[in-house]
Amino acid sequence: MHLRVLKRLLVGSPIPSEQAQQERLSKPVALAIFASDALSSVAYATEEILRVLVLAGSAALALTVPIGAAISLVIAIVVYSYRQTILAYPQGASDFIVAKDNLGRLPGLTAGGALLIDYTLTVAVSVSAGVAAVTSAVPALFPYRVILCVVALAGLTLGNLRGTRESGKLFAFPSYAFIGSIVLLLGAGFLSIVTGGSAARISPPALDGGVAAPLTLFLILRAFASGCTALTGVEAIADGVIAFKPPEARNARITLAWMGTILVTFFFGITVLASIYAVVPRPEETVVSQLARRIFDDSPTYYLIQGVTTLILILAANTSFADFPRLSFFLARDGFVPRQFAHRGDRLVFSNGIVILALVAALLIVIFEGDTHSLIPLYAVGVFISFTLSQAAMVRRWVGRQEAGWWWRAGINGVGALTTGVVLVVIATTKFSHGAWIVIVLIPVLIGGFLIVNRHYREVARQLSLEGYGGPPPLKHTVLVLVGDLHRGVIPALQYAKSISPDAQAIYIEQDSEKTRVLQEKWQKWGLGVPLTALPSPYRSLLVPLLRFLRRLQHKDEHHLITIVLPEFVPARWWQHLLHNQTALLIKGALLFWKGVIVTDVPYHLKH
Amino acid sequence: MHLRVLKRLLVGSPIPSEQAQQERLSKPVALAIFASDALSSVAYATEEILRVLVLAGSAALALTVPIGAAISLVIAIVVYSYRQTILAYPQGASDFIVAKDNLGRLPGLTAGGALLIDYTLTVAVSVSAGVAAVTSAVPALFPYRVILCVVALAGLTLGNLRGTRESGKLFAFPSYAFIGSIVLLLGAGFLSIVTGGSAARISPPALDGGVAAPLTLFLILRAFASGCTALTGVEAIADGVIAFKPPEARNARITLAWMGTILVTFFFGITVLASIYAVVPRPEETVVSQLARRIFDDSPTYYLIQGVTTLILILAANTSFADFPRLSFFLARDGFVPRQFAHRGDRLVFSNGIVILALVAALLIVIFEGDTHSLIPLYAVGVFISFTLSQAAMVRRWVGRQEAGWWWRAGINGVGALTTGVVLVVIATTKFSHGAWIVIVLIPVLIGGFLIVNRHYREVARQLSLEGYGGPPPLKHTVLVLVGDLHRGVIPALQYAKSISPDAQAIYIEQDSEKTRVLQEKWQKWGLGVPLTALPSPYRSLLVPLLRFLRRLQHKDEHHLITIVLPEFVPARWWQHLLHNQTALLIKGALLFWKGVIVTDVPYHLKH
């Protein structure tokens, strides 16, 4: 009862099913909602490039801008490619659906598994990057980063369990504040360079004196792979077309183009600035924070930028709290994950998916100590697996349907598939030993799990199907009341047994023939006419004689159904249960998997 | 299944009830059985006196012999006093029964609680003293004493769960070997003094240079109190009169006199020898071991004495494994402890009492790190509480009955009660801060528990009694089948419901009216003629509409009984349970304490 009150306080009152309608979004609001994941990655993507290059010494940092340009090109290709997907799926479709529809079950499940991992990592990475923005501004909080992450995660989980009706308005402010503040940062940064202001006075990079690694091609590719985390979340708009105001597909494609433009501008802009300002990555302060501090000193503007960055990152995590449960719902509907994921809670949200996501993300944050940089190698693999499968599926679709202009569209998606496929190989190779192997191992494990679960559900459906069912055999039914004594608590059980069968009989396990005699005397008066049989138990066991009796009854007829009625008096207080032999529990446990036996408690409630 | 095989291997096959007969013992065998507890205490009682006196410096050790003499006098009084008890209770009676019969319930429960504590401490003290005899002989084992104690305890527990048919023979050897070896020790020790042999060359006590405490009266009384542990177990023969060959009472009284004589001789003998040989107590080696080593060097005789001492101490612990479960049985029969303690396991022993005793004793040994000396202050309080109550009860009995010679017998028991009462006050005072307070606090707590349990059992008996019962009200019974779909797993439940009531109806919780339509169509063909009612659930809750429906049904008639039949398909493997909504469990949980509602599962077993 008290738990229920607590749940209502935290989660709110139930919401009726008919309120389950989609809110339709204008383009600016849709941008705010769907872009938070993609845009927020500019908060850490540049830093990941720098972190790899700096291993080869400060001279290697000169490669930052070319690598940034290459990643920007990949972003443009993927955005353009997804615009084709929207044309084909005007109702919207996740990579899982696109891959399943056009390539088949196994590629679909691969994309599904990759996406589940991707969503989980989005939460872990975004929350820890958001907390990193805070601890960069307030270094005193750095030792408490894991706790801060877990608190933020708990807040997100609770908010999502409540369900967010007003999500549009909620998202618009932080997303546009972030866009505004990055525009401000880039504008002020470049202005300072042009005017030769104080902030542009480039200080030499303060590298720790260590032996630098050689600048191999492998290292350059690794830097490229690290920066590709900028692409995470690009697929979100294609997935959510249905949420746009009509004409949905057109509005979604325009919004996707806006988002791609902003993303490339921001990512490349920050990369160039970081290169000019010669920012060197440090564990305790993010690159964006260093840039903002150089440009705005410790002014309120600096703190505003950090605050807004944290907000957008938390909101990016929030999008996964919608995506993960929704994908789980699709997988559950198709019978690939436990059915519980398809159940909407009383606030109309998929509560089970939300809770699982939060728990796994929390585990990741704790294991990786809230360090964004350590989580990144696991991150991009899943994203690029689903990109590649989804684009390849689109090629197959265009080629298969041969609609007008199919070769052009197939070409665009083909370039997309090829590009993302190559990037996937680069990421998997260069990040393998840094953590990508975990995801590469995990995906087949997930697929195996999906298939086992699916086989079970199909087998159950087959066994339960009424198709070709000849009807049940005639029922043979015996009712037994198991008694240990005769008192007021037993009478309702006798009465009940008589009411459900005219041939009910009572069974008594005899340990002492003298007690049997006393019982039989009482039975004359109070036995309600139910015949009493005493089964001798020389070894004082309750179960052995009972089971032997049942076996003898069922021996004659396999389909003989037996109901065992157990009189059970229920104490008024929990501790009083400890003062009574747990006979009923024992019998129920022993008969749990005994076929053809039904155990029915007839309770007699004690008063105090 | 495998657990059952393991249990049979460890504990043996079940024993039929008719084998529950008492083995009748001759006086020598009875002495061996009942004396092990009392006699074994000479292995540590003298040492406890020395340990206190040595605090006041080596000169204080001169008081050892007078204190030993005073304790010997107390032993003689208590033994003589218990001989009167045997006269009055020729069937034998524990202090609990004697106090309860003659002084009333509360003193009886006080004695009962004190004895339960006493028995538990006997196990803990005897096992750790037995292990101390081993580690004295083999000092390398000293660091492993706690593990050794726990292993010995586990062996005792297992042996007692098997039940010991051959206990007489088992006890005779070690008891007489112990008596023989102490006779040998005392004989050789005193002979050496008389002949001026090498062993009698008294070395000056090697005391650690520390500030000695002043030799106050309090310290002397504390030394006396410590030595009184020699009396533990003296009551055993009076408790077990029924086990003797007839004439039981006469044989028991003779055996008690023998035991008293041996006990006083051994205890006083060792005390005097320790004093003459100026043995100084050390934590790593017992006083008896030091004496034996001085007299016999490291000869085989020395090791024999240590080995036999260990054996008798383990056997002393074993007597509590009979006493504690028996007393628990009496308390359970009278309804003062949970009834489970009155249940004989399949080897005819009170298994629950044995297991509880072993667990608490093991806990004590671990907490006190297997150190006999730390456990002793807790020990004697309980023993002397039950001595005093039992002797006082006897006085009351003699005075009340006024049989021939009553004043003489009352006088003897009066002296016994007075002596043990005074000793009790001395022990409680001088040992209070060393641990006796634990027992003094624990006994009222135990009594409170006894009374609460008793009140509950009496209240249950009152509520269940058929006395003045007018018979049950006529039964109004409705059968509902709760369905979520219609498939092969549901058919047996429908069939069952029809068989137990011609008016059974099916209930469906509707979340989606389209699904209801599909179900109703199927129902036409396969519903077995059971009418189907759909309850709308706008909030998707299964429970809320169901509970509302039940409440409405029962609203009309409080005694309206409702059976809810739940079709439940049972997966073949445990992990498959996780893949299904635990609806049945949820409903059973919600209705567990709902009056007048019976939940019946009709299982449908899936094949694989």
Q: How many individual helices of chain A?
A: 21
Strand order of the largest sheet of chain A: 3-2-1-4-5
Give the CA-based shape of chain A: elongated
- At the first level of CATH, the class of the largest domain in chain A is Mainly Alpha
How does the helix and strand content of chain A classify structurally? alpha/beta
**CATH fold group of the largest domain in chain A:** Amino acid/polyamine transporter I
Distance between the termini of chain A: 20 Å
**What's the mean pLDDT score of chain A?**
87
Report strand % of chain A. Answer: 5-15%
- Which spans of chain A have pLDDT < 50 for at least 5 consecutive residues? none
Overall structural domain count of chain A: 2
* Biggest sheet details of chain A: 5 strands, parallel
How many β-strands of chain A, per DSSP?
Answer: 5
Output the CATH homologous superfamily of the largest domain in chain A.
Amino acid/polyamine transporter I
CATH architecture of the largest domain in chain A: Up-down Bundle
Which pair of chains forms the biggest interface, and how many residues does each contribute?
A: A-B, 66 and 68 residues
Helix content of chain A: 55-70%
Rounded radius of gyration of chain A (Å): 33 Å
